[in-house]
Design a protein that fits this description.
Elements: E1 3-6, H1 15-25, E2 29-33, E3 49-52, H2 58-64, E4 68-72, E5 87-94, H3 101-112, E6 118-124, H4 128-143, E7 148-153, H5 158-162, H6 164-167, E8 171-173, H7 188-191, E9 208-214, H8 223-233, E10 238-244, H9 248-258, E11 260-265, H10 270-276, E12 279-280, H11 282-287, E13 292-296, E14 299-303, H12 306-313, E15 322-326, H13 332-342, E16 347-352, H14 355-361, E17 368-371, E18 379-380, E19 382-385, E20 397-398, E21 404-407, H15 415-423, E22 426-428, H16 431-449
Parallel strand pairs: 1-2, 1-8, 2-3, 3-4, 4-5, 5-6, 6-7, 9-10, 9-11, 12-14, 15-16, 15-19, 16-17, 18-20, 19-21, 21-22
Antiparallel strand pairs: 11-13, 13-14
Length: 452
């Protein structure tokens, strides 16, 4: 796995130290770009240097005595002046779109005729049709044994980035705490979770593909880290990606062509996931929503792992007598079922901003529904925040020193968590739910690989 780290602007004056840090982190090449660090001085690098002049000219290349030189298609005239032993990479960058596949093939043919060491294509990915084009192009290049790197720029190119080490000659990355050199680049620490050896040999079985699909908010999801860690720990040949989208059905259809076998599903697509599946587990049938899809024959089987995540993640709910839930968000039905499984005698009161809507959605559950403005006069052993946005909410008074406040969101201290903490609650975020529901999803994903 050839990981390339680009020298960031912030390290211009400490390039030597940065190269050493990158090497210790697992990088194999240090890229120096003329458009990012044009003023960096020559230095003794502990890593082989790849120079990408990007308009900086021949003098910039010669300054570093590189092992590799990456020339954009507009810089081909520099080929004649490069040292004989330098490995030449010819690159195409399209910062607006991804050309049609036929156009990409023609571009590759012209680049290959110049006999470079490697061909590199990086285009902006605007939708999953673009992902499919680049995926098919890389498949073609690998079948023809053409040394190449094909990557996408943008948040929807995550799958191309995740699979890069096993499909591309070079994988471009960055160190944690520094800036990426392209939109959608993944940190080097992420790649340490993945299989270490690159091979495109037909004899090697391609990894099974899974991922999380949802709105744009999922680009900050920890699910790829959790699932890829589990795959690595259990030595399973699989990778997990991230699929932010506005069009659930179209995206699923395209990703099936690529070979994605299962999905974690989050807002706003859980009802669409339920409708798409041909088979359902008992909880999804009861709720009419699904957060997990796994390939089953020619269709999908739907599961709900949110209930399991809440049930296993918050055992303190077993002892709570009076439980308040703020908001009527998508995770609310799962939270109610999980509480009932833990504690059949608990009294559950939902405080909603729209009580009419909440009553219609929760008519099958035996819970009390009150306006949000009544919260302040309520006392609870446990309070759960099921509101998706971070807004200031009234919080009930804790009934004891052991009362717990649970925010089903994770990743930051929310207004709810701060306010609940000030009142004396023991505060928890959504991480226990996330980790436990992911472990259950992992079981569904891996069972599907064994035909179960």
């Amino acid at each position: 796995m050839m990981l390339v780290v680009t020298l960031p602007l912030s390290a211009t004056k400490r390039a030597r130290q940065f190269a050493l840090k990158a090497k210790k982190a697992g990088a194999k090449l240090l890229e120096i770009r003329g458009d990012i660090t044009p003023n960096v001085k020559a230095f003794d690098s502990s890593l082989p240097i790849l120079v990408s002049p990007r308009g900086a000219g021949l003098g910039f290349i010669r300054r570093f005595k590189p092992s590799y030189v990456d020339l954009d298609t507009a810089e081909c005239l520099l080929l004649r002046s490069l040292p004989i032993r330098v490995k030449v990479i010819l690159s195409l960058h399209d910062y607006k779109s991804t050309p049609a596949l036929t156009a990409l093939k023609n571009i590759v043919q012209k680049m290959y005729s110049l006999k470079p060491w490697m061909i590199k294509l990086a285009t902006v990915v605007n939708d999953y049709d673009d992902v499919l084009k680049l995926w098919n192009l890389q498949e073609l290049l690998n079948k023809k044994s053409i040394r190449s790197t094909v990557s996408g720029m943008g948040e929807k190119a995550h799958l191309l980035r995740v699979t890069s080490p096993i499909r591309n000659e070079l994988t471009y990355t960055f160190l944690d705490g520094t800036e990426p050199s392209a939109i959608g680049q993944l940190p080097l620490s992420f790649y340490r979770l993945l299989p270490q050896a690159r091979t495109c040999l037909p004899a090697r079985q391609a990894p099974a593909l899974f991922g999380i699909i949802g709105g744009n908010q999922i680009v900050s999801s920890l699910s790829p880290v959790i699932h890829n860690t589990l795959f690595r720990k259990h030595k399973i040949n699989a990778l997990y990606s991230c699929f932010p989208t506005e069009n659930f059905k179209k995206t699923i259809k395209i990703l099936q062509k690529i070979g994605v076998q299962g999905f974690s599903v989050t807002a706003p697509f859980k009802r669409e996931a339920f409708a798409m599946a041909k088979k359902h587990d008992a909880i999804t049938r009861r709720l009419g929503v699904a957060n997990t899809l796994v390939k089953s024959g020619t269709g999908f089987r739907a599961f709900n792992t949110d209930v399991y995540g809440i049930q296993k993640g918050y055992p303190e709910l077993k002892k709570a007598k009076d439980i308040a839930i703020l908001g009527a968000g998508g995770a609310l039905p799962s939270a109610i079922i999980a509480i009932r499984r833990l504690n059949t005698n608990a009294s559950i009161t939902i405080f909603a901003r729209n009580t009419k809507k909440a009553k219609a959605a929760l008519q099958k559950f035996c819970v009390s529904i009150e306006p949000m403005c009544y919260v302040a006069s309520f006392k609870s052993d446990a309070v759960i925040c099921a509101v998706s946005e971070d807004v200031s909410l009234p919080v009930p008074k804790p009934s004891s020193k052991s009362a717990v406040a649970i925010d089903l969101r994770y990743g930051k201290i929310t207004s709810f968590m701060r306010d609940a903490g000030k009142l004396g609650y023991r505060v928890c975020d959504g991480m226990p739910m996330l980790v436990n529901q992911a472990q259950k999803q992992f079981q569904h994903f891996t069972s599907s690989l064994h035909g179960k």
